[in-house]
Every structure is written in structure tokens, then in C-alpha cells.
Fold this sequence. Notes:
Blueprint: E1 6-8, E2 15-20, H1 31-46, E3 52-57, H2 68-77, H3 96-106, E4 111-115, E5 118-120, H4 122-128, E6 132-135, E7 140-142, H5 156-160, H6 166-175, E8 178-180, H7 181-187, E9 192-193, H8 197-209, H9 213-227, H10 233-246, H11 250-261
Parallel strand pairs: 2-3, 3-4, 4-6, 5-7, 6-9
Antiparallel strand pairs: 1-2, 7-8
Helix pairs in contact: 1-3, 3-4
GO molecular function: isomerase activity
InterPro entries: ClpP/crotonase-like_dom_sf, Ech1-like, Enoyl-CoA_hydra/iso, Enoyl-CoA_hydra_C
Family: Belongs to the enoyl-CoA hydratase/isomerase family.
Amino acid sequence: MTDRLVIVTQPEDGVVEAVLNRPDKLNAITPELMRAIADAQAEIAAMEGVSCVVLRGEGRAFCAGLDKSGFERMKSTGAGSLGMDIMDRTHGPANVAQNACWGWRMLNVPVVCALQGFALGGGFQICLGADIRIAAPGTRFSIMEMKWGLVPDMGGMAAMRHLARGDVIRKLTYTAEVFEADAAFDYGFVTEIAEDPLARARELAREIAGKSPSALRSAKELLNIADEEGGALEPLLAESRLQKALIGKPHQLEAIAAGMEGRPAKFA
Length: 268
């Protein structure tokens, strides 16, 4: 297996695969991985003969969320986990972190995501950018940012508002509850549950890729327009603005310290 953080395969019958490739770290998110996702999206967009993408994580998990080094950086410096100003719009309406989710949504072909093991925090938000999500039984999900004194800031709120009821999203956001594939399906976050989600995702991608390429691209554009009648910029900017106000402040630093030390947080 190559040491590339995101592997993009060559098109086969109109399908390419984008593979998160930090299996020893459960594909945990680093700044380098986020930038590699952006590079992979650009590479796929420039390819000829692509009608569908399979997005997956190598190894035991899709993505276990932010790498702990990101929390250590927040704790020691009060800076964001990416070492950048998250208010900067680097990818259309999104910053580079949000693009890890939103870039799949804006890609001009359908994206089918295969999920196994974990899709936690930022990993959950990344998968929400796909058009379709296929999960293995027992896959664990969480809107986990509240555990670390944060709010979801990788495009998740802009994406999930079209998938689940508002009260469900609020409960999961406020509690950082971990839930499994059956609940994710009931909530609307998962499209299908399959014993072998990658095999099913590949099967579905081949079926999609057999349709008219121009009609597929038009359909995705139309569906995105229908979903975003109010526009994506406002919720994406709000994510960044509210997150920036939390990062490095006493409550957030205490949440990180408590989480890293395995103790209850003590907020003044």
C-alpha cells in the first residue's frame, strides 16, 4: 500500500475509489490528510471517464475523527487544529476543513461512501458529504465535538440538516452520544446497512456509472440546488465563526484536558 494519505484509483467502468490511507491510526484526521482530501477531489474532478466515486477508509475504520495531535496543539497554543484561520474561505464557500466534507458534495459526480468501524467527529462529517452512505452493522458514529468543548465545524451542520430531524441533530450534538449503524439508518444518516459495505458500495457505484454521464452530472447539480435553496455559505461561515470563538478559551481547554486525562470536566 502506498504512503499517500488519500489514494485515488484509476477509473474502471466509470468508477474511481478515493481511499483514506492512515489505517494504523484509524484514518484519524490531520491537516495533511485534509489537504490530501482536497487534492484527491481536484484530481478526480479533472479525470475523464468518471461517473461515480467510492469513498472509503483503509483498514478497520472509515475515520476515527481528529488525530489527538490536533487536541494537543489546541491545548498548548490555543490555536485551531489545522494551524490556520478557519474563517478563510479556501474552497468556494468552505475552508479546507469543511472542504473535506463539502468537497464531496460539490464534486460533479455522485459519491458512494462505504463505512466500517468508526465514523466519529470529523470522520462523521466527512462521510456526510457523500451522496449515499453504506454502513456495516455495528459501525459507530458520533457528533463528538462537544466532548472537546467544540461545535461541528467541518461542514457537518450544513450537510446533516437535510438528513435528520432537527431535534435528533440537537440531541446528538449536545450529548456527543455514540450511536450505531441501526440508529444512524433510522435517523437518516445512513442510506443502507450491508454486511460488506465496500462490496455493496462498489456494486451500487457500477450501477450508477452505467447511466448517462451527462444526466448524472446534471442530476447531482439539480439535487444540490434543491437542497441549498438558501445557500451553503451562511451555515458554513457560522460554523467557522462560532468555532473560532470557542477554540483556546478556558472551557474548551478544560474539555480537552479532561478528555485527554480521562476525568470529568470541571467548568467554572
